[in-house]
Records
---
Amino acid sequence: MSPAAEPRQALVIGAGLSGSAVAYSLAVRGWSVTVLDRAAGVGAGASGLPAGLAAPHVSPDDNVLSRITRAGVRATLQRAQALLHSGTDWALTGVLEHNLAGKRRLPSDNLASDSGHDAPLDSPLGMTQQASAAQIAAAGLPPGTPALWHGHAGWVRPRQLTLAQLQTPGVQVRWSQAVHAIERRDQAWTALNAQGHTVAQAPWLVVASAFDSLALLRSLPGFAVPLNPLRGQVSFGHMADLTNAQHQRLPPFPVNGHGSFISGVPTPEGPPGWFIGATFERDCTQAPVRLEDHLANQLRLASLLPALGEAMAGQFGPDRVHGWAGLRCTLPNRLPAVGPIDRLRLPGLCLSAGMGARGISLAVLCGELTAAWMNQEEPPLPAALAKHLAAERYART
Ligand SMILES: Cc1cc2nc3c(=O)[nH]c(=O)nc-3n(C[C@H](O)[C@H](O)[C@H](O)COP(=O)(O)OP(=O)(O)OC[C@H]3O[C@@H](n4cnc5c(N)ncnc54)[C@H](O)[C@@H]3O)c2cc1C
C-alpha cells in the first residue's frame, strides 16, 4: 500500500509510550486510530516506569546516536510542554551527567568552550556543556569531578505522557484486547485474539508492543528485526521518610551517569519520592521486583553520588525501599526500528519498537517519523539520520 492511501484509518497494537506516540501523531493529522492493548489500563509495560530522564547522549564525534537523541529529547520535551503539567508530570530541570568512566566527551575542545551558551538546540552545545563548579558543588560532588550539564533535559513520568497522548481526539483505546496474531485479508490488516476471532481491522497497522512485537511478527515473510528483552529495576522511597540531613544532601536536579538519581517527583502512590536506577539484566522475560536489585541500586547511588549514597544507606532496608521493574525492548545498535517493515511484501504494516533504555527520549520522535511516512510527508529528521531508525534496515531478502 502506498502511504496515505484512503481511508486514513490505523490500528496500533500496544498502548505504551511508542504506541501512544504514533496514535497521537496520526490523530493530529486527521487519522482515525484504534489502539489495542492486552492490559486493563495504561502503563502495563516499560512505560509504567514511575519516572525517568529525557537527556541527550554525547559523543566526541557527535555520532548518529547523539544526533538522534538530541532530536528525540527536543520532540519529547515539546510534547510534554504541550500536554503535561510541569512540576507534577515532568520538569525541565536540566540534568548533571557525572562522567564516571570519562567517556562522555563533547565533540571537540574548541566546541566545548563557553561560547556554546547561544548554540541552537540541534547542535551538541545547544543542549550540553561542561558542568560549572557551582553545578558540581550543588550535586554534592567534589570539586573537579568530571561532569556535563545537559541544560535542555529533565524528568518525565512516562505513564502521564502515555495517558495524555492516548486522550487525543481521534484516538480510541480498547483495553484488555490481547492480540494473538495478525494477518492481511482483503487489503486490510486484521488483529486476531487467541480464539482466532477478529478483534479489529484497518488498512494500516502499527505494531508497537515492544518485545512482544516479535511474537506477532516473526512468522511474516522477510521479518528479521532482532528485538531483545532487557529487564530493569528502579528503587524508590518517599521524601517524607528522609531525615533533615538526607534532605540537605539531595541535588536540586537529576544526576545521571552510572544510572540516574531523581528526587521530588510523585511516586506511583502519590507523595513525592526519590528514585535510583536502573539495573540491566539480559535474556529475562519476567519483571518481578527483587531485593538483590535494590542492593545493586544502592551501590549505583554510592558510585554516582558518593556523599548522598552514604547518607541514604538506611533508606534501602526492605521495610523502607519500594521497587518497580519492567522490560526494555532493545536492538543491537541501541536505535529503535521504526516505520515500514517491508513495504513490498508487507504493505500497510509499520513497526515502532526497540526503544531500549531511551524510550522517553525517542518514542515521540519515532511516532512522528512513522506518522510522517504514513501521511506522505517529509520526515522530521534529515534523511541521513532517519535511515538509521528505519525498520526496513533489517528487511531480509
Ligand atoms: C527500569 C527502567 C528504567 C528506564 N529508564 C528510562 C529513562 O530514564 N529514560 C528513558 O528514556 N527510558 C527509560 N526506560 C525505557 C522506557 O521506559 C521504554 O523504552 C519505553 O517505556 C518503551 O515504551 P514502549 O511503548 O515501546 O513499550 P511498553 O511500554 O512496554 O508498551 C508495550 C505495550 O504493548 C502491550 N502489548 C504487548 N503485547 C501485546 C499484545 N500481544 N496485544 C496487545 N497489547 C500488547 C503491553 O501491554 C504494553 O502496554 C526505562 C525502562 C526501564 C525498564
---
Amino acid sequence: MSIDMPLEEAPLSQLRQTPIDSVLHIIDEGLVHLPSYRELYYRWERQQWKAQDIDFSEDRKQWEAMPQDEREMRIYALSAFFQGEACVTDTLAPYVLAMPDEDMRIFLTTQLVDEARHTVFFERFFRDVMGVETGKIEESLAFARQYVNDDLKFILIDSLTEVAERIRQEPRNLAHLVEGVTLYHIIVEATMALAGQRNMLEIYRTNNLFPAFRGGFTAVARDESRHVVFGVKFLRDMIRRDNAHAHVIDAAIDTYAPIAIRGISPNPDMVPRILAMGGDPWVSPRYAMDSLAKKLRVIGLRISAKLPAIPPPPVSA
Ligand SMILES: [Fe+2]
Ligand SMILES: [Fe+2]
C-alpha cells in the first residue's frame, strides 16, 4: 500500500489519480490569501517533475486500439494544448525583462521554464503515443495546427505574439505589460487553459484513458496554479499602484474574452454527438466564464465585456 504524498510534492504516479478539482482548489486558496512572489517561487522549487521520466507505453496501446472517429474527437483538444504551450513558451521572454520588481522577474523566469517543459511534454505525447514523428518540433506543431480553430489561433498565435512584441519594443511602458498579463495569465491560462484542462482530465480519468498523460497533465495543472495566482496578484498590485491600469485590464477583457470563450466552445457539428454520449458540450465555456469572473473579483474588477450566452447543463433523462 502506498501512502499519498501531499499534493504539493506528489510524484507523477500519484498525480495520474488525483482529481483535477483538488489541483484547481490550490488556486482558490491562493486567491483567498495571495502568496508573495517569493512564496510562489519557493513552490516552484518544491514542485519539480520531468517530462523525460514519463513512460507512455500504456497510453500508446490505448491510442492504437482507439477507433478512428474517437481519435479524431480527441485530437482537437490535444492539438490546441500543444500549440498553446508552444505559443506561451515563445512569447514570455519580453515579460520577464519588463517586470518592474525583481521578485516578479525571478518568479517569471520559473514560468518560462515551466512552459518549455509543457511544450516538450506535449511533443513527446504526439510522438510516442500518436506516432507523429517528424524529427523537428516545428513540424509536429504544424501538424497540430491543422486542428486548431481560428478563434484559438487569433488568441494564441496572433494576439500573444502582437502584445509580446509591443512589450519587447517598449519594456518600460507598463500599460503594455498589464495588457499582456491580462491576455496571457487571465485569458489564456485562467480562462481557456484551466477550463479545457479540467474537462479533458475529468473525461480521461472517468474513462481510465491515457494514464501516463494524466500524470503529466495534472503536473502541468499544478504549474498553472502558480502562474494564474501570479497573474492575479500582479494585476491587483498594478491597480494599487495606479488605478489607470484598471481601464487597460477592462479593455483587454473586452477585446479578448468573447473570442476566447468562442474558441473553447464546442464545434456545432459535435454538439449532438456529445449530448448523445450523455456529456455536456458546454462544460468548458461555462467553467471558463466562472473562472474569469472569480479572478477578476480578486483583482478588484467585474466582467463588463459582452460574452457569448452559454446553454445551461443538459437535464439527463
Ligand atoms: Fe503551460
Ligand atoms: Fe502557464
---
Amino acid sequence: MTLSNILAPSTDTDALIDRRAVGYSLEAPFYTDPQIFDLDMAAIFARHWLFSAAEAEIPDPGDFVTVDIGAYSVIIVRDDDEEVRAFHNVCRHRGSRILQQACGSVGNLVCPYHQWTYRVDGELVYAESQPPEFDRSRLGLRPVHVRTLAGLIFICLGDEPPGDLDEVAAVLEPYLSPYGLADTKVAHQVDLVEEGNWKLVMENNRECQHCDTAHPELITAYFPLFGYSENDITPRLRPVFERYRAAQDHLSNACSVTGFPRDERRELDTRITGFQVSHLPLDGGGASFGADGNPVSRKLLGDIEDERFGDLSIHMQPNAWFHMLSDHAVVFRVLPVAPGRSVVRTTWLVHADAQEGVDYDVDNLTAVWNATNLQDRDLVAGAQRGVTDPGYVPGPYSMVEGDVESFVNWYVGRLRTYLTP
Ligand code: FES
Ligand SMILES: [Fe+2]
C-alpha cells in the first residue's frame, strides 16, 4: 500500500476497501457516496445491535418510541407484562405505517388506515370484514430483535443478530447495574441534526484531541493529564498531577468499597459488538458536569453513595456512547439520515424520584453537553465539507486517535464480512 493508492476516489467499494491505507482516514466516498451510504445501511445498521433508547423512555405498559433507521421504522413498546418489545412499524394488512409519532402511549396499536388493531405484544386482535377462515394468529406484527442491557435498549434489524451481545452484556452489566438506569426518568432529550456522515460523527466522538480547543465547558470536568506518566510531569504540572492522583485514589477506593469493577476494557475492533468501558476521575469538585465539578442533581443514581464517583464512559459500535455520573447519566445515539446528514439524540437521565426545580434544573443539568454537542456539530460539519472537497486526501491518525482507528478498523472489517461472508 502506498499513499498514491489512496489518492484516486472511486465508487468501486471492493477496490476502495482493498486499497484502504491502515492508519489513515477513509477515502472521500465513504463519507459522501450514496452507494456506500446504502451499503452502510445494509451492512451495518440492518445487521448489528443498535442502541436505540433508554428503558426510562418507556416506563409504563403501552409507552412506545419509534425509531427510524433508513427506510425502516421500528416500534419499541413496553407490553402489559412490562417486557420491552420491538416490531416493524408496518401494518400486516396493506403495509401502512402504524405509528407516526416519535413517542407516546397507547392501549393497543391501531393502524390509522383500516384500523387493524394489535395488542402491545404484537398480536392482531381486530381486523374488519374478514372471511370466517381468516387466521389472525398468523398476522401479528413482525418482531424485531430487542435486548435490554441494564436499562439500555438495543435492537437488531437482521434475521440473525450478532451472537456476542450476551458476552458484552456479561462484561458491562456489573459496571452499569449499580447506576439503576431502569429506575431513572428522562429529564431532557435533544435531537441534533448534524451535517455530516454518521462515521464522521462517530470518529469525532472517539477522540478528545480537539477537546482542549473546542470544548471549554467540557474540558474543565476532566484532568488534562490522560496518557501522562509521572516522568512526563513538569514542575508546573505537579499540582494538577497530585490532584489527579488523589482523585484516582479516591475513585479506586470508592469502587473497591462497593465491589464496583474498576478495570478498563477495550474491545472496540476485536468483536462484532465492539465496545469500550473506562472509569475516569473528574477534576474540581469531582462529582459531575456542574460548575466546578459539582453535582447537577441532588438524588444519586442507583446504589451510588459517593458523589465523587467519576465518569463511567462506555463506547459501543456502531452508534452510541454513554456517560454515567453519580447523579445523572447522558446517553447518546447516532442514526444516519443521508450520506452527509445524521441525527444525534442526547438523553439526560436522573433518578426517577428527582424533582425538576427541586433536585435539578434542566438548564444546569444539560449545559455542558448542550454546548459540547453544538461545538461537535460544527466540527463534524467542517469535516464533512472538507472530505467533500476534491482537494481531500486521507491523512494519518495521531498517537491519541487510536479509538478513531479502532472504529474505522471495525467498520471496514464489518463491510468486508458483509461483502465476502
Ligand atoms: S393497512 Fe393497516 S389496516 Fe389497512
Ligand atoms: Fe467533541
---
Amino acid sequence: MAGKLYGIGVGPGDPGLLTLRAKEILDGCGIIAYPVRKLGEGSTAFDIIKQVVDVSEKSVEEFLFDMNPDDSVRERCREEAMEKMCMLLDNGEDIAMVTLGDAGVYSTYMYIDAEIRSRGYETEVIPGIPSFCHGAALAGVPLMIGNEGLAVVPVAKENTALLRDALRNFDNVVVMKAFKSMPLIAETMDEFGIPREGATVVSNVGMEGEYIGPMDDDRKYGYFTTVIIKKNKGGREI
Ligand SMILES: C[S@@+](CC[C@H](N)C(=O)[O-])C[C@H]1O[C@@H](n2cnc3c(N)ncnc32)[C@H](O)[C@@H]1O
C-alpha cells in the first residue's frame, strides 16, 4: 500500500505551540521532509520540530524547488522533486512535510499537496498556529472583535494594491512579508489617516530576536516580520 503525505503546520517558532496531532504524526513517520530553494539551506520548520521530536532514527529529506528564472529549469526541478516523493510513497513510506505556521497561509506545501493528490496519493493537512495569531496574542491585541472583519495581505515587491483595498474595507489588517516594506506600509497608513499607534510589529515571534512593539524607523527587520494594523486603535474612527 502506498504511503501518505502529511503537511504539518508547526507554528511560528515556539516548539511548545506544536499541536498534539502534529507531534503524534511526526513521531510516527519515518521520513521528515521540507522544501528548499537551494540544497543544504535547511528549514526553520525543521529546526522547530527537532527541539521536541527525536529525529535521530528518521530519514530527513530536502525537496528542491529551484526558483531559477528559466521556466524549464524550474519545471524540471519540480518534476524531479515530485518523482522522488512518489517513489518514497510507492515504497509504502509516510512522509511528514513540515511548514512554518499554518500550511494554508502562504506555504509552498499546498502546491505540493495538490500535485501529489492529482497523482492519486492520499494527503492530509495538519493545521498549525499562524504567525499573526501568536503575534497578536503576545501583543495582547484582538485580531477582530464584535462585528469587525480581518484582512490578511502580503506586501511584497512594492505592491500596495491589496493593502490599500484592505485598509479601505477592513477594521483590522495583517500585513505579511513586511520586512522590506516598512516605510511603504507607514506611508500608506499616513495616506489613510491611520495613526502609527494603530500598528504593532510582530517580528521573529517565538524565535531568537523576537520583537513585539511599535513601528521603529531605526530598527532592521528580518524576513519573519508581520504588521498588525488596527484602524480603530489609538486614534479616531475612520
Ligand atoms: C511564506 S509566509 C509563511 C506564513 C506561515 N505559513 C504562517 O502561517 O504564518 C512568511 C511570512 O510569514 C510571517 N511569519 C512567519 N513566521 C513568523 C514569525 N515567527 N514571526 C513573525 N512573522 C512570521 C512573515 O510575515 C513572513 O514574511
